[in-house]
Amino acid sequence: MDEAHFRCRLSSPTAPLPHVWEHTVGSCHAPLALRADWQTQLRRCHQELGFHYVRFHGLLSDHLGTLIRHKNQLIYSFFNADRIVDFLLSIGMRPFVELSFMPSALASGDKTVFSYRGNVTPPADYREWAELMRRLVSHWVGRYGLAEVRCWYFEVWNEPNLEAFWAGTQRQYFELYRHTVEAIKGIDAELRVGGPTTAANAWLPDFLHFCDGHRLPVDFVSTHHYPNDPLWSDAQDTESELAGAPRGILREWTCEARRQTGDRPLLYTEWNASSNPRYPRQDDPYAAAFAAKSALEASEFVQAYSFWTFTDIFEENYFPSLPFHGGFGLLNLHGIPKPTYRAFELLHRLGEERLPVEGSHETVDAWAARRRDSVTILLTNHALPQQPITPQRVRVELTDATAPRAVTLARIDDAHANAKAAWLAMGQPEYLNANQVEQLEEASRLVAEAHPWKREEQTVWLEVELPPHGMAAITIDGAASHL
């Protein structure tokens, strides 16, 4: 078995470890937020994983009834949108408001996206769009109070650089942003508005150049990335696309976006292990290791890093029935945690002080985080599909260390916290009964077990074996420096 070696000096100064992955989490489209099971799952994610905001498409689409034209009169109804916001506030969360898609009453064409037919054409009259913005946001300020709505984010559209999501030109999107930000800032200058919410870091310099040239506020810059951007055909081979991507591709893109945006707040409002909503590895430990590695690497560069999505209650293509079908979610249709959910659970437990870690390895990465008088060493052994990866014996050396009170280990791999493996062993039932759901919930759990350690001359030695795409968290209670 190959070996990786890392060293962490407990007396070293710490740096901040902001939990940017907890800022926001994604969902499908707004009408699903009215479902009881969607609400139950989001409440759990908030309580156990610490998410603060949720973002979804289609708040303005016809299914929510926000705006219709009847007898040549525009009729506004914010009732359903209010019900969603009421629920979010009731559980201690807030909306990350994606302003999409175009109400048919305002649309310049009939091009749509997804099974729910979100209209992706520019407005026929930008003044009518601006009036919708004024009415909607003014209504929310009146209902929830200005102090509350100032805490929200208003993001203009979704991925306008892709034809599937925007039938207009770049210039037309910039005009949409101009009318939107002027309408919302006309209500209150401290309301937060941003964009261009593009796929794959696109348009960032062009967008900022336009806004600066027209003296338009940009309270945050948002974009998206997936390691196989973009995916728009069932004929595409996700495995091959990912195999051809360089290691650390999301970190590279995040660094580049940080360079392009300067010191403006940078928010990634979508990312996942792939852009394919039916990719089997997204139910596997592979995705957990990918997610943990990506989130920790992004924390150095961004203010928010929103995973797409928290649940498999998702109907962009069709509503599935298989409990494990490769969906985007942290939770499956039944609310059973996937390995990615458990990865976010381990991330949530980390402290907000990062200790420097020395050592490098081709597939193994290590991070150290302090929380009060404990230190957690988080390890991943990850590579993209078809790229070389083998089991690794990982040795961790904690120097300047007193003897710990206890050391525990929690794992995510093929044999640990892996509900899909238990489902496969059941014979892959398509429809689960209550007993099966309970069994799979149990199989998904993280189990923290006592882990051996030794100490010699103020150095604590730890060792763990990591299978391919395995993840482990070693928590050292009472991990203090002897200096």
For the record, the CATH architecture of the largest domain stands as Alpha-Beta Barrel
Give the number of helices.
12
Number of strands: 23
Q: Which structural class fits the helix and strand makeup?
A: alpha/beta
CATH superfamily of the largest domain: Glycosidases
CATH T-level fold name of the largest domain: TIM Barrel
Describe the structure.
By secondary structure, the protein is α/β, with parallel strands linked by helices. It has two domains: 2-14 and 352-477, Immunoglobulin-like; 19-349, Glycosidases (TIM Barrel, Alpha-Beta Barrel). The chain has twelve helices and 23 strands. The protein has helices at 36-49, 79-90, 126-144, 146-149, 170-185, 204-213, 238-243, 249-261, 285-298, 339-349, 419-426, 434-444, and strands at 2-9, 15-16, 24-29, 53-57, 67-70, 73-76, 94-99, 112-113, 118-119, 153-156, 192-199, 220-224, 266-270, 304-305, 353-355, 364-371, 374-381, 392-399, 406-412, 449-450, 454-456, 459-466, 471-477. The chain has an eight-stranded parallel sheet. Helix 3 runs parallel beside helix 5, helix 9 packs parallel to helix 10 (339-349) and helix 11 (419-426) crosses helix 12 (434-444). It is globular.
Question: Brief overview, please?
Answer:
Helix content is 29%, strand content 24%. It is α/β, with parallel strands linked by helices and 483 residues long. Helix 6 links the parallel strand 11 and strand 12.
Helices and strands in order:
Blueprint (H helix, E strand, L loop, with lengths): L1 E8 L5 E2 L7 E6 L6 H14 L3 E5 L9 E4 L2 E4 L2 H12 L3 E6 L12 E2 L4 E2 L6 H19 L1 H4 L3 E4 L13 H16 L6 E8 L4 H10 L6 E5 L13 H6 L5 H13 L4 E5 L14 H14 L5 E2 L33 H11 L3 E3 L8 E8 L2 E8 L10 E8 L6 E7 L6 H8 L7 H11 L4 E2 L3 E3 L2 E8 L4 E7 L6
Parallel strand pairs: 1-18, 3-4, 4-7, 7-10, 10-11, 11-12, 12-13, 13-14
Antiparallel strand pairs: 2-15, 5-6, 8-9, 15-16, 16-17, 17-23, 18-22, 19-20, 19-23, 21-22
